[in-house]
Design brief:
By secondary structure, this protein is an alpha/beta fold. It contains 8 helices and 9 strands. It is globular and about 65 Å long.
């Protein structure tokens, strides 16, 4: 049975790999990209399966409404929404300006909000659907230099948790994908660096900046294999809420969970830790 997908940010990386896998499997998809011509080759290779749309990151609400209308007009419905569009931003919190971090929050978080809101009415009517939000290992654990990027992904994770609870009784599932380093353009043309550099942060956020730029093209993760994992999850009757991708992501997330558990266990054991009223 053919599914209909909407995939945002489909010109490269995870979006492109997933779009190709979806189309090879015979499904139909609406593909969004900042430059619409970047996905026209897929429309030509898979006639009748592809509709394309230019993604305007300055008007995600308008683009999301257009994507919903395009999907309904071309294919009748949307079964799977993949919120993938976004970009990376690295620099110390003090180094950043609103002109740098607010567009990233608009793209990474608020764009997801608008695409989800635009496509939910149809999924609710059919009592069926899948929403796949591309998060990051940074959505679970933040490192120096990734403050604003992690904030966008932490926000996405919180939204997704609440949304999953709201939609579960309606037959709609939400899944977070949490990749570690993958060989995409995240550390290439999709990465933005703080323009202002403060020397005091050289060993913290500065080290992160140097590491990520030097690693471009040598990341261990394969986007094609990531696409296969996402396809498998979408096909499941009850997909998991979170799917880390890659050994690095599993390791970092487990370290974070262990650290949080150690902190709360240590504080809970302190005398006087309870804060409830005596009669509670």
């Amino acid at each position: 049975m053919q599914r209909v997908w909407v995939i945002t940010g489909a010109s490269s990386g995870f979006g492109r790999a997933l779009a190709e896998a979806v189309l090879r499997g015979g499904d139909a998809t609406v593909l969004t990209a900042r430059q619409q011509e970047a996905v026209q080759d897929l429309a030509q290779r898979y006639p009748g399966q592809v509709a394309t749309l230019a993604l305007d990151l300055t008007d995600t609400e308008g683009t999301a409404a257009a994507a919903a209308a395009t999907a309904e007009r071309a294919f009748g419905q949307v079964d799977v929404l993949v919120n993938n569009a976004g970009f990376g931003l690295i620099g110390a919190v003090e180094e950043m300006t609103p002109a740098e971090y607010r567009p990233m929050l608009e793209a990474n978080f608020f764009g997801t909000v608008e695409f989800t809101r635009a496509l939910l009415p149809g999924m609710r009517r059919r009592r069926s659907g899948r929403i796949v939000n591309i998060s990051s290992v940074a959505g679970m654990t933040a490192r120096p230099g990734y403050g604003f990027y992690a904030a966008s992904k932490f926000a996405l994770e919180g939204l997704s948790e609440a949304l999953a609870g709201e939609l579960e009784p309606l037959g709609i599932h939400v899944t977070l994908i949490e990749p570690g380093p993958f060989r995409t353009e995240f550390t290439g043309r999709s990465l933005r660096l703080a323009e202002h550099v403060i020397e005091d942060y050289a060993t913290t956020s500065g080290a992160s900046r140097e590491t990520v730029t030097n690693r471009h093209g040598n990341q261990p993760g394969d986007p094609q294999r990531a696409a296969e994992v996402i396809l498998e999850a979408v096909a499941m009757d009850n997909p998991p809420m979170r799917i880390p991708l890659g050994r690095y992501a599993y390791g970092r997330i487990r370290e974070k969970l262990a650290a949080v558990t150690a902190d709360i266990d240590a504080w809970e054991s302190r005398a006087g830790a309870p804060t409830e009223f005596p009669e509670a």
